[in-house]
Amino acid sequence: MRPLMFAALASGLLFAGASLVGAEPTGTFRHAHNVGFGAHSSLDPASKGRVLQIIEKIQSRLVRPGRGGKPAPDLATRWEPDETGTVWTFHLRENVRFHDGSAFDAGDVVYSLKRVIDPDQGSPARAAVRMIETIEAIDPLTVRMTLTSTFADLPLQLMDPRLRMIPEGSGDSVAGTGIGTGPFQVEKFDPDGITILTANADYWEGPPALARIEVIGVPDAQARLQAFLSGQLDMERGIVPLLRRALDQSLRYQLLEIPTGNWMGLIFRTDVAPFDDVRVRRALRLSVDRDEMLKLALDGGGVVSCDTPVAPHDQYRADMTCPRDLERARALLAEAGYPDGIDIEVNVSSLDQSWPLIGVTFQDQAAAAGIRVTLVNAAADGYWSNVWMKKDAFTTSWGERPADQALNEAFHSTAKWNESHYHDSEFDALLTKARAELDFGKRRALYVAAQKRLRETSGSLIPFHVTQLVVLSNRVTHFDPVPNDALRWHLVSVVD
Fold it and tell me: 182: closest CA among 196, 169, 165?
């Protein structure tokens, strides 16, 4: 990084930046997060315990989602590959500063991404950028990335919400400080209580409209809703669709419906019986009426998915059908050695209000195929640490990711967060070929084939992608109806 500026000069620039906007930041915005990682909660964007509801406001990426989810400039203003698609050059934004006053430059980019790529670091984001072989600073505002093989969609990968830029050398402290270049900075971090963020007057897009954001730890979804309804919060995401009509008719609230690539579903570990038999896994999926499950769990607020994590609006989304077939499901169970049906347990939790509804619907639908489901209610607190990837069958949810990342991170045999422990050499090979293919049509065909392979063999039941319901208090303004990751938090304001 470049040297710190003298305090007087930095202070003068901050004041000048605020005066250009013509208004000082005002008001406090309050919302909750689910404390999903418990004691492991962290402000290190590359860590397992990252709290994205905080990180999205305090740290920036090189590339962020623009309109339609396409890559748009953030800390990088432009980029270009060489003719082989193996060497990419990124040009960085000038006059950007971290919350500690130090200047952002190419050294910070090299450091931030090398931390993620380093296998010893154990970052869950590594799968998104493991194709980067070397990264180097060409000059203070230019970075060159050399890939292990051709990859035409590198900017899409760099939109990953965990690939935030942090100060060079800050890896040992960023988990608590959260220092970044975002519109807000951390005054106090308390994942179980109230985390306080204050406006970064030196933010490169201009000072935020809000003076303060409070992000409050509330593990239980019902408790979060009650806190919102009682006026303690200004926003709650993921509202149960059955409440849509009541909230939409109230003059006290604003309701936004946001189509997303977010998905939730049921995971069956492919490394344990009986789910280690592909016929059993196929039978589980065939027993489900996805339209009915979508209606019952989300009041129809979503798009049916045939077990692909790829978002409905993604350019690589496979067009598939997956009708319910109880006769075929029973036949597959019989072939697998269960002519009288099968008994299984599925862990659900109130961490997400829709999970129990998915569980109950699956229990009812699967019974018709001879699949007897016992639902186990798991505590919301510590769910990601104690249940996810540990129990044989459980509920899950994922945020939207570009196709390559969604497929690699959750299903590639070497992926750290391969939650179903899915290992399929044919699937892995399709992803490898897709990354190396420069022709868009051929590349798309490979990603489609990979999704069809998942539909037939994976341990994941992905019934639908979610139309997210976000409810706001009437005091909130300039909150765009876009997915979480694309929201420009510096524009959000409140009117008292």
Answer: 165
The backbone torsions φ and ψ at residue 354, rounded to the nearest 5 degrees and listed phi first, read -85, -20
CA 307 – CA 390 distance, rounded (Å): 21
- 132/110 Cα distance (integer angstroms): 11
DSSP type of residue 103: B
Cα-trace Rg, the chain: 23
pLDDT reported for residue 19? 36
Cα separation, 94 vs 286, in Å, equals 54
| Least confident range of 137-141, 174-178, 218-222 | 218-222
Could you give the C-alpha distances from 41 to 48, 190, 239, 271, in angstroms and in order? 8, 9, 24, 28
pLDDT in tens, 15-29: 333 334 458 999 999
How far is 263 from 285, CA to CA, in rounded Å? Answer: 16
Instruction: Give every CB contact of residue 444 below 8 A, 6+ residues apart in sequence.
Output: 315, 316
State pLDDT tens for residues 185-214.
999 999 999 999 999 999 999 999 999 999
Distance (Å, whole) CA 349 – CA 155? 35
Q: Residue 462 and residue 63: Cα distance in Å, rounded? A: 28
Please identify which residue in the block is written with the tokens 């510590």. Answer: 382
Read off the tokens for 444.
């798309």
Question: The tokens 């059993």 sit on which residue?
Answer: 280
Q: 3-class SS at 355? A: helix
Residues 6+ apart with CB under 8 A from 37: 48, 49, 50, 51, 191, 384, 385
Beta carbons of 129 and 163 less than 8 angstroms apart: yes
CB contact set of 442 (below 8 Å; sequence gap of 6+): none
User: Of 422 and 409, which is predicted with more confidence?
Assistant: 422
pLDDT band per the 50, 70, 90 thresholds, residue 245: confident
Using an 8 Å Cβ cutoff, are 273 and 419 in contact? no
Tokens of 393: 């069958």
Examine the pLDDT at 14 and tell me if it is beyond 80: no
| 409, containing H or E segment | helix 403-411
Q: Give CA angle at 241 (313, 380), nearest 5°.
A: 95
Given a contact cutoff of 8 angstroms between Cβ atoms, the answer to whether 115 and 171 are in contact is: yes
**Which residues, other chains included, contact 16 with Cβ-Cβ below 8 Å and sequence gap of 6+?**
none
CA distances from 128 to 156, 402, 409 (A): 9, 10, 7
41-52: pLDDT as tens digits: 999 999 989 999
CB of 425 closer than 8 Å to CB of 455: no
Q: How confident is the model at residue 15, as a pLDDT?
A: 34
